């Protein structure tokens, strides 16, 4: 059985995980930096990179301790090298290279966005591909046609803000603080999702792209039209209606585009990942849509939804094919769809 250590430092979570080639997660440690960034109302790249530098080694130590695996027992080191904040990514990439060299073991490079989809495969404990993959996070809103675990074809993406970013900005306008998603969801629970009308971009168009900047502006103007100051005091019942109506607009679009993607590809499996997938109202709406279509919905548990290193178990697929990363592996801030490389399996293992 092959053992892996994975490192994640793409944004504001310092994370390390230990797993095996049967996709059993032996440890999944995440040190959140939320408190460090809260007073700035968003992630400050410089602060994030420095915090990763301080925390990464203790986090790796903790993952090894929890798993009972010793460094010398590892068969490979995986790292998410793209996309993300470049200074933050560099901390994880450098540490992973150093470990791979010191242990004389292969280095594996995993795409953070694709790993969010792969989290569904890990949680399901069985093959989930081919499937439609939706990643809704703070930096990305992307739809994939996942032909297999390593063949991801881009179907659509946001043209401006990501869904999570829209939640965070809405929270700020509603005076709810950072990070916004969970706060907007909590506030929305007491509100009426039909109280205010908000735009839903491309809802009835066949294109599979998203746009949330118009919705954000509509929220800003609505708050002003109601006579309040964005970010200032808003009565609780009005704030709840604004949060619920805003959340519903985001959910309607996400659900509609997933339904269209399933329809257009003829697939009947939907894998959803990323921080926004933690939203219970979204999960329920996606479940309803999938049930109505006779499709299967896969959403990982919270620990695999928000940023973590265990989702880098996608590296097991690369390891089996011998697709190792070179030691001059770079940190790449922007998302570039990976070109699948067909190669001969070096390692044969039975999949779960
Ligand atoms: O995937 P993630 O942990 O980090 C990135 O890679 O961006 O996603 C973080 C995003 C944040 O924008 C946060 O506000 C959003 O996910 N989020 C939520 C919820 N929990 C986290 N959005 C809506 N509802 C939630 N319950
Ligand atoms: Zn993420």
Short characterization:
This protein is an alpha/beta fold.
Characterise the protein shown here:
Helix content is 42%, strand content 18%. The chain is an alpha/beta fold and 352 residues long. Strand 2 and strand 3 form a beta hairpin. Helix 2 packs parallel to helix 3 and helix 5 runs parallel beside helix 7. It has eleven helices and ten strands. The protein folds into two domains: 129 residues, 2-Layer Sandwich (Nucleotidyltransferase, domain 5), CATH 3.30.420; 174 residues, Nucleotidyltransferase, domain 5 (2-Layer Sandwich), CATH 3.30.420. The protein has a five-stranded mixed sheet with strand order 3-2-1-4-5, with helices on both faces. Strands 8-7-6-9-10 form a five-stranded mixed sheet, with helices on both faces.
What's the arrangement of secondary structure elements?
Blueprint: E1 3-8, E2 13-20, E3 25-32, H1 34-38, H2 45-67, E4 76-82, H3 86-103, E5 107-111, H4 112-124, E6 131-136, E7 141-148, E8 151-157, H5 163-173, H6 180-188, H7 213-225, H8 236-265, E9 269-273, H9 280-293, E10 296-298, H10 302-305, H11 315-321
Parallel strand pairs: 1-4, 4-5, 6-9, 9-10
Antiparallel strand pairs: 1-2, 2-3, 6-7, 7-8
Bound molecules: 5'-O-[(R)-(carboxyoxy)(hydroxy)phosphoryl]adenosine and zinc ion.
């Amino acid at each position: 059985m092959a053992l892996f250590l994975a490192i994640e430092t793409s944004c504001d979570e310092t994370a390390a995980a230990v797993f095996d080639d049967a996709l059993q997660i032996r440890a999944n440690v995440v040190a959140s930096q939320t408190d460090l960034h809260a007073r700035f109302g968003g992630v400050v790249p410089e602060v994030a990179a420095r915090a990763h530098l301080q925390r990464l080694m203790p986090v790796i130590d903790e993952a090894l301790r929890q798993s009972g695996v010793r460094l010398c027992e590892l068969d490979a080191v995986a790292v998410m090298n793209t996309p993300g904040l470049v200074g933050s990514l560099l901390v994880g990439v450098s540490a992973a290279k150093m470990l791979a060299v010191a242990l004389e073991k292969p280095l594996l490079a995993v795409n953070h966005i694709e790993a969010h989809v792969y989290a569904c495969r890990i949680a399901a404990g069985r093959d989930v591909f081919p499937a439609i993959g939706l990643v809704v996070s703070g930096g990305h809103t992307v739809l994939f046609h996942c032909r297999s675990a390593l063949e991801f074809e881009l179907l659509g993406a946001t043209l401006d803000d990501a869904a999570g970013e829209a939640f965070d900005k809405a929270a700020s306008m509603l005076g709810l603080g950072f990070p916004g998603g969970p706060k907007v969801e909590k506030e929305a629970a007491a509100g009426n999702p039909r109280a205010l009308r908000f735009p839903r971009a491309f809802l009835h168009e066949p294109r599979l792209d998203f746009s949330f900047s118009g919705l954000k502006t509509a929220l800003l103007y609505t708050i002003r039209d109601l006579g309040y100051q964005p970010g200032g005091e808003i009565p609780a019942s009005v704030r709840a209606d604004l949060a619920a109506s805003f959340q519903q607009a985001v959910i309607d679009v996400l659900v509609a585009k997933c339904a269209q993607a399933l329809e257009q590809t003829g697939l009947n499996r939907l894998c959803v990942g990323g921080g926004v997938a933690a939203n219970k109202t979204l999960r329920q709406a996606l479940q309803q849509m999938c049930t109505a279509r006779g499709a299967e919905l896969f959403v990982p548990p919270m620990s695999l939804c928000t940023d973590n290193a265990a989702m880098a178990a996608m590296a097991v697929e690369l390891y089996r094919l011998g697709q190792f990363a070179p030691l001059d592996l770079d940190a790449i801030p922007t998302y570039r769809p990976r070109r699948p490389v067909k190669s001969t399996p070096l390692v044969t293992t039975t999949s779960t």
